[in-house]
Amino acid sequence: MIFKVAAFYQFAALPDYRELREPLRAFCADLALKGSVLLAREGINGTIAGTAEAIDAFAHELAHGKLFGGRLDNLEIKFSTSAKMPFGRLKVRLKKEIVTLGDAAADPTQQVGIYVDAAEWNALIAAPDTLVLDTRNAFEVAMGTFEGAVDPNIKSFGQFKDFAAEQLDPARHRKIAMFCTGGIRCEKASAHLLARGFAEVYHLKGGILKYLEEVPEAQSRWRGECFVFDERVALGHGLRERTREPACDE
Question: Which are the contacts of 48, defined by CB distance < 8 A and separation ≥ 6?
């Protein structure tokens, strides 16, 4: 059996996120979905897996159903497949942030970097005046990254603001292009840099996963594999599964 996997997020005002937890958990359980969903006042983030029909029903409910009442009308969602169920159970958790940076000024609903589609990414990062920045954790970068990208060498995304304060300068780094697995970390990171006075900040829309899905391998500037936080461990071009042991615990 082939399982369908959905990775999704959206920054949106969800003041009732605590009340949403149990109805969302029950809806997922009825569809026999497994995976992890995070709810916070600032939005939703998660990766879940199930049958193709169940995932399609879930995606429709998020975007168009009564549960969120149309508040997730700009959901970033990417689909892939797995030869086996990549999650052991279903978790719906409440968080302060759907991706933890710890900077109240970084609000993607107020300001965010310039989105760049996968088809335009190669030209942007090849420009000599572009600083290409990988916003992921060090063990993820070690598995694969884009040619010429700067590794901030962080253990968790919360350390990104310290890296930016110590290593980045708005006066010197006038044009920054950043990327992450699915796009969510770049939403926060770009908002953080803009709040600190950086003038020109770009980020890869849909993240590495969208790039690997859409850009032919022969034209790709990606090298290695893309770590994913489930039992598939890593994906390659075309979002093909790679069979290997995890390099690090989630």
Answer: 5, 6, 28, 33, 34, 35, 36, 37, 55, 58, 87, 90
DSSP conformational letter for 96: S
Look up the pTM and report it.
0.89
Residue 248 annotated among the catalytic residues of the structure: no
Instruction: Report which of 212, 205, 176, 215 is spatially closest to residue 117, judged by C-alpha positions.
Output: 205
DSSP label at residue 38: E
- Residue range 33-92, pLDDT digits in tens: 999 999 999 999 999 999 999 999 999 999 999 999 999 999 999 999 999 999 999 999
Place of tokens 């949106």: 12
What is the C-alpha separation between 207 and 194, in angstroms, rounded?
19
Q: How far apart are CA 103 and CA 118, in angstroms?
A: 28
CB 56 within 8 A of CB 6: no
Catalytic residue among 180, 186, 226, 248: 180
Q: What is the pLDDT of residue 55?
A: 98
Please state, in angstroms and rounded to a whole number, the distance separating the CA atoms of residues 183 and 189: 10
Scored b (16 or more CB within 10 A) or e, 226-237 reads bbbbbebbbbeb
| CA dist., res. 79 & res. 47, Å (int) | 10
Compute the average pLDDT of residues 226-230: 90
Residue-level pLDDT at 242? 66
User: Rounded distance, CA 174 to CA 32, Å?
Assistant: 48
176 pLDDT exceeds 50? yes
